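COMPLEX REQUEST
Ligand: fructose -6-phosphate
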Amino acid sequence: MLVLWMCGIIGFKGKGNAGKIIFEGLKRLEYRGYDSWGIALNSAGLEILRKPGKIGSLPAAFEGGSLGIGHTRWATHGGVNEKNAHPQLSNNRKIAVVHNGIIENFLELKKFLSSHGFSFASETDTEVIPNLIQFHLAEGLSFREAVRKTLLQLDGYYAIAAVLEGSGTIIGARNGSPLVAGLGRNEFFIASDIPAFMPHTRKVVFLDDREIVELDDSIKVFSVDSGLEIKKKVQRMHWSIEQVKKGNFAHFMLKEISEQPDAIEKAAMQDPARLKKIAGIIGKADNVFFVGCGTSYHACVSAEYAFSEIAGKSVKAVLASEFARHIKSLSEKSVVVAVSQSGETIDLLETVRAAKEKKAKIVSVVNVAGSSLPRMSDETIMMNSGPEICVLSTKSYTAQLAVMLLLAFSLCGRAAEGRCIIRKAAEKAAETIRKSLPAAKKLAKKLSKKQDIFLIGRGNAFPSALEGALKIKEVSYIHAEGFAGAELKHGTIALIEKGVPVIAFMTSESEKQITSNAMEVKARGAFLIGIGEKKSEIFDEFFEIGGCDEAALIPRIIPVQLLAYYLALERRLDPDKPRNLAKSVTVK
Ligand code: F6R
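STATUS: Structure written out below.
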């Protein structure tokens, strides 16, 4: 059976407490997957712990040690059970491997290994890796060379970390899945993402594809293909430890919703000259595509409206997974704006690869520094939102909106004014959080048993309706759908009956039409909730957001984010880790 992974991995070498440090790191990586978890500690022998389910507690026997690796898993195929959890072991139980990604030729490799007497205990593709390493060690290769030779046999995307009993080193490698090394004081880390080791060090080395990293008494990087050492730059991250802790908040989701005013401000602090240059590239292009997935795609749809309304430039929003049909229309005069919080979403990376082959210019809008996307782009705008730990995108979404608006303003020579409008939106976001939090909490009690929630918006509030619906359904599991205001009556209005909640985004541009659409559902018994600048008595509940001109789309989403959060709590769900989801979607 094919097993795909989208997981978190960590490796640590230091003076002690390895088990505890790996365990704490795994908890900070749990947003990447939480079906099962495991640790391999290299102490007297190789000690293995593997558990299905979310990360539980660490047995005292696993707290110590000076070297080990850990894994938290998100599986798309294959049972969630102890034998499929990582680390996966070699037949001689001397090599343990954790892996994120997919080995496409694992069946072929299994056949090869079986013909040499190897057997397999799991359904995973990963299990071929420790066994191939065992095979190559038996040929007399060093640990690093045995791993390298193994990697040369693998097809597919991966990030791995491997330990060999008694070796005193950890070997990691990346090809398409993220991996970053951390340099502490006599402590060395590798992980899928920086928050895993952030309390210990902020000095990092970003690995590129087809690189091997060796953690010993230092960090050394080598090419998978040549085996030669590569000199890498050590970078210092400016994220603070507080950003990866919940602090006084019950959940990361609420913390990150609350951080939005600051995130919006930071997103707007772009170098004006660079913005002007990038806006110029977009302005001159024959065709411009804004591409993303999920919430990032909704920000792209907002860009369609913003560019047309603010700068009179027509751009197209496309889902990354559906971009193939546009490839033929790309040329060196095209621009693809790739929008992503993580910078690792595989569908988007594939779009960018295909667009580069057509010589299109790539501009990326990204949050995670050192991720794959900026390295593939001609120009990158960093969103500077800080780490987003909750699986749901909240602050990264409003930061994306701020960047889109800023680009549109820059394109028509209104960059300074645009920055002021976005700053005002940041203030209004703070006010909206303060004012709507108690009302959202109360409303969640009323709506928590509903089956469906519909959201409507016209003009630039249409993408807000799409995003609001996604927030509600992914965290509360209540079915929610977003529509352009007038579309509901082309079919879905058949579902409106007494008490069905409908959220209407009221904008100054579409006040009359959206009021008519709201009245149409009210006439059929809908429970009507309004979000807008001007309260109207047609609504059963109303969230008032302060005016901020073209940037009104920023504060407008906040009451729905809060409602979604409290709906999850009412339904006794964990808002930070909705079922079946993972933050970084690195599989197709
Ligand atoms: C929803 C959510 C996802 C992501 C999508 C793209 O709350 O978080 O829909 O927006 O998986 O992820 P990035 O932005 O990392 O490319």
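REMARKS: Residues 1-5 have pLDDT under 50 and may be disordered. The chain has two domains: 10-41+59-64+76-237, 252-570.
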